[in-house]
Amino acid sequence: MKVLVDTHSHTVASTHAYSTVHDYFTQAKLKQLQMFSITDHGPEMPDAPHPWHFGNMKVIPRVVDNVAMLRAIEGNILNTQGDLDVLPGMMPYLDFIIASFHEPVFAPSDLATHTQAMVNVIEQGQCQIIGHPGNPNYPIDIEAVLTAAKANNVAVEINNSSFTHSRQGSEANCVAILEMAVRLGTKVSFGSDAHIAFHVGDFHHCIAKAKQVGLPETQIVNRTPESFLAFLHEHGKSVALELADWCQGLSGENHVEET
């Protein structure tokens, strides 16, 4: 199994991360990624960039050395109504939104509260990916969340850093989410959640667990640029058209999947 797009990474704009956009382009090329995404934290996080950061991402080239970059955000779930800290003025500049719980913004509560908030954010229609839902600090009704995600064409993230150095105790939840995704047919996204460029494109734990539960590769929305841009096109995102010619040039490279 080979995954050629990373949907989740952070730059020095989120000050607990340590790499620049240039660093990410360099490492993505070295690791033979074809596309990566910058998803710095939404403004309610204590060390988040100013909202202008997201609007000005338009100055970053779409493609450098034949590697494409998507301009996105990891928005914070604010309340049980499913509101995010993504201001309306930011929306036109974003290729997609990851919606996540973070302790400084949404204090951990109970399963019913977390589930209500997550289902509501899915149903509001702003986000395309639910970030690290396996976090043990935020237990959820997995079937309810994944049912809502499937109904609204939202992908649930399996976050590679949840198996290594972040959100300790996530592994069993992540496996349960993958098993439920297999049962329901819910779409899945693999993200490195890199906070330094050396980790971009690291999905080895995600891939191992996906193989363990028999997740069909067709349910992984970011397996290729073509598949991820098609997913974003389903959400009406113009980046799919902006990168259509570049993506067409890759079409002959992505038919052979690594086993």
- The Cα radius of gyration reads 17 Å
**CATH topology-level fold name:** TIM Barrel
- Poorly predicted runs: 255-259
Mean pLDDT: 94
Q: How does the overall form come out from the CA principal axes?
A: globular
* Cα separation of the termini: 5 Å
CATH architecture: Alpha-Beta Barrel
- CATH class, anyone? Alpha Beta
Per DSSP, the total helix count is 9
- Major β-sheet annotation: 8 strands, mixed
> How many independent structural domains?
1
Order of helices and strands: EHEHEEEHEHEHEHHHH
Short description:
With about 260 residues, the chain is of the alpha/beta class. The protein is about 30% helix and about 15% strand.
Describe this protein's structure.
With 259 residues, the chain is an alpha/beta fold. The protein has one domain (5-250): Metal-dependent hydrolases (TIM Barrel, Alpha-Beta Barrel), CATH 3.20.20. Helix content is 32%, strand content 14%. The protein is built from nine helices and eight strands. It has helices spanning 21-30, 52-55, 111-124, 142-151, 171-184, 204-213, 225-234, 239-242, 244-250; strands at residues 5-6, 35-41, 63-64, 67-76, 96-100, 129-130, 155-159, 188-191. Strands 1, 2, 3, 4, 5, 6, 7 and 8 form an eight-stranded mixed sheet that branches. The chain starts with a strand and ends in a 9-residue tail after the last helix. 47% of the residues are buried. Mean pLDDT is 94; it is low at 255-259.
